[in-house]
Design a protein that fits this description.
Belongs to the ABC transporter superfamily. Glutathione importer (TC 3.A.1.5.11) family. The chain is of the alpha/beta class. The protein has helices at about 40-50, 75-80, 95-105, 115-120, 140-150, 170-185, 195-205, 220-225, 230-245; strands spanning about 1-10, 20-25, 30-35, 55-60, 65, 80, 155-160, 190-195, 205-210, 215-220.
Length: about 250
């Protein structure tokens, strides 16, 4: 579904690259994790793939078709993104129902062509909440709304940028299980960015580990769970993850 070859990203002409020669492929219907410490370039890769950052070199393909740096409107019907902060990604002065219809308006589609209530139910929300504003919802409810908005165009791919890191631990599991169910039921393909190895291990079948803008290792999740990583950075990251919360 997704293939990236030699992706290099700079934030300006003549600047040092923040992402260098990143390459990986994601099979249709699977979940692929991109993991590493904060600032290693994970979200930058996601933004380049999503079209939010067009200043890159390299090749990005969607189901075998190369993508132009300036994404076309049909691209956004097939690829949607769920951001880290559900409050920041929702408009504070628009109702939930209005925001769910926004992707349809952007695509020039009839705003009544998709059953908003059905989409809300699919993410575990009462349709009555659609007349509320974001500040009237909990963090978990807001992230469910963000996921619902991404589903309005019935995409093939969801790009997930730390989708649970801004949530309480008890709510994180609910959102991750919801995402798992949606992928299974809808045949979605996920690219999940996270610094949390436990989240990636739960969600993904294959993982790429990034350090300082480069992928240092790609492994399947079974090897990650066994601790069978080879690169020194991967080993340090795994040790740090296992020690987290023990102090």
């Amino acid at each position: 579904m997704i293939k990236i070859d030699n992706l290099t990203v700079r934030f300006g002409p003549g600047q040092r690259p923040v992402v260098r020669d990143v390459s990986f492929a994601i099979e249709k219907g699977t979940a692929f994790g991109l993991v590493g410490e904060s600032g290693c370039g994970k979200s930058t890769v996601l933004r380049a793939l999503s079209g939010l950052n067009a200043n890159y070199d390299g090749r990005i393909e969607l189901q075998g078709e190369p993508l132009n740096q300036r994404r076309s409107r049909p691209f956004f019907r097939r690829v949607q993104m769920v951001f880290q902060d559900p409050y920041g990604s929702l408009h504070p002065r628009k109702t939930i129902r209005s925001q769910l219809k926004e992707p349809l308006r952007n695509q020039g589609l009839d705003t009544n062509s998709v059953d908003v209530n059905a989409v809300l139910r699919s993410v575990g929300l009462d349709p009555a909440l659609s007349y509320r504003f974001p500040h009237q919802l909990s963090g978990g409810q807001r992230q469910r709304v963000a996921i619902a908005r991404a589903l309005m165009l019935d995409p093939d791919v969801l790009l997930l940028d730390e989708p649970t890191s801004a949530l309480d631990v008890s709510v994180q599991a609910e959102i991750l299980n919801l995402l798992q169910d949606l992928r299974t039921n809808r045949g979605l393909t996920y690219l999940l960015v996270s610094h949390d190895l436990a989240v990636v291990s739960h969600m993904c079948s294959r993982v790429a580990i990034m350090e300082a803008g480069e992928i240092v290792e790609q492994i399947d999740v079974g090897a990650l769970r066994r601790g069978a990583v080879e690169h020194p950075y991967s080993q340090r990251l795994l040790r740090a993850s296992r020690m987290y919360g023990r102090a």
